[in-house]
Design goal:
The protein is an alpha/beta fold and 393 residues long. The protein is built from 20 helices and 14 strands. The protein has 2 domains: 96 residues, Diaminopimelate Epimerase, Chain A, domain 1, CATH 3.10.310; 255 residues, Alpha-Beta Barrel (TIM Barrel). An 8-stranded parallel sheet has the order 2-7-8-9-10-11-12-13. Strands 3-4-5-6 form a 4-stranded mixed sheet.
Length: 393
């Protein structure tokens, strides 16, 4: 076994840099697998202020309001960022400013229809500063091997200006939800990568739009009708550099491709990127390729085949992240029209590389050269060196 292994620093094509920078000092539950451990962490929280935690995997353990009410005000985000829980103390603190969210956040369908508002809500209650963003970026570089990162949810013009005037200007790139995008100055619209849309939900909350029901009976959620999505793509084509569309489920992916085909027939050559595409089928993949759609995928989410085995429909564990089908049969090429990111789950080389080279199913496997082509920057920016036993054991 090699004593050291290295890859060029990463360009993370899909994350939420501002949001994670604001959460950086919060309790991280990503490695917490038992309720007892989580509750012990919450017992150390400060009273008299809003406390937060993130990275909770509801597949490992549940967290209910009665259990959380004995702690100081606390809000906890699901690992998927689609869904959260809070105790009554947090509700009381947040209600004056966020009454609609407090009234509806336990309704998962409402949450998917308002997902960008909820993500921006987290940015507001855990705001990032230049200092926290710089510190977080240093952590990503030194500890995770991430040099460049695309933030899929620009919160405001103020955040954009913070980054533009900082040392992070050449390392952090932004997409904006359509409502925020409409408020931005024309100069900013031209500089950012484009508009981010949502077509469905996520596996953690059983809301990705799948062709079969989740094991708990949920059928997933399509965020838009087809005509609505076509309209949004046409607006993006006339105003933005590009559009990135979150679509995990096979039904959502099919809808996005159909919408893209429609706007292509109308003469649009807009840059369209399909985010996640975890359960895309071969027919839809070929149509996406023909429509000039670029895929932005997360090798990290190969783990969903295991951690969400309690909820995925039968057979969907093996359908997840079908990289070999996409590359070998549909013709996508890493680094050309297929790129990789983490969604912050987690950031960094080691976990993503482990999921890529040692997946649950053979059809999920990427080669090292494919990983580097689709995920890494030019080696002139630096090399991330690590002990391979941390991946291969």
């Amino acid at each position: 076994m090699l004593s050291k292994m290295s890859v060029p620093y990463l360009h993370d094509s899909h994350s939420h840099f501002t949001l994670y920078a604001g959460m950086f000092k919060s309790i991280c539950l990503k490695e917490v697998k038992t309720k007892e451990t989580a509750l012990n962490l919450f017992a150390k929280l400060e009273d008299g202020k809003l406390n937060s935690a993130y990275g909770w995997n509801s597949g490992f353990f549940s967290l209910t309001k009665p259990e959380l009410n004995k702690f100081p005000p606390l809000i906890i985000s699901n690992l998927s960022l689609h869904g959260f829980v809070m105790n009554e103390g947090a509700e009381k603190l947040l209600r004056p400013e966020f009454e609609e969210i407090i009234d509806n956040y336990e309704n998962q369908e409402w949450c998917e229809e308002h997902v960008t508002e909820l993500l921006l809500f987290f940015v507001k209650i855990m705001p990032a500063t230049v200092e926290t963003m710089t510190e977080f970026a240093e952590f990503l570089l030194k500890e995770c091997g991430v040099y460049e990162i695309e933030d899929m949810l620009l919160p405001s013009q103020e955040i954009f200006e913070m980054i533009e005037s900082s040392t992070l200007k050449e390392r952090v790139y932004f997409w904006a939800d359509i409502n925020t995008f409409r408020t931005l100055p024309e100069a900013t619209k031209r500089k950012i990568k484009g508009i981010k849309l949502f077509a469905d939900g996520a596996n953690g909350s059983c809301t990705a739009a799948l062709s079969k029901s989740y094991l708990n009976g949920n059928k997933g959620v399509l965020t838009h009708t087809l005509p609505e999505l076509v309209g949004l793509l046409e607006e993006a084509a006339s105003t933005a550099n590009g559009v990135a569309i979150h679509a995990l489920g096979d039904i959502a992916g099919r809808q996005v491709v159909e919408a893209a085909e429609t706007v292509r027939k109308h003469g649009s050559d807009q840059f369209i990127r399909l985010e996640h595409a975890q359960f895309i089928d071969l027919e839809t993949a070929k149509r996406a390729k023909n429509a000039g759609i670029v895929l932005s995928m997360q090798p990290n989410f190969t783990e969903d085949s295991q951690i969400y085995a309690d909820r995925l429909p039968l057979g969907f564990d093996e359908m997840n992240n079908p990289f070999r089908m996409l590359i070998d049969k549909a013709g996508f090429v890493p680094g050309k029209d297929m790129f990789f990111g983490s969604d912050g789950m987690p950031h960094g080389v080691k976990f993503a590389l482990k999921q890529s080279l040692c997946p649950v199913f053979e059809g999920q496997r990427l080669t090292l050269s494919e990983f580097i082509a689709g995920y890494c920057t030019d080696k002139k920016y630096g090399i991330y060196e690590f002990d391979p036993t941390e991946i291969f054991g």
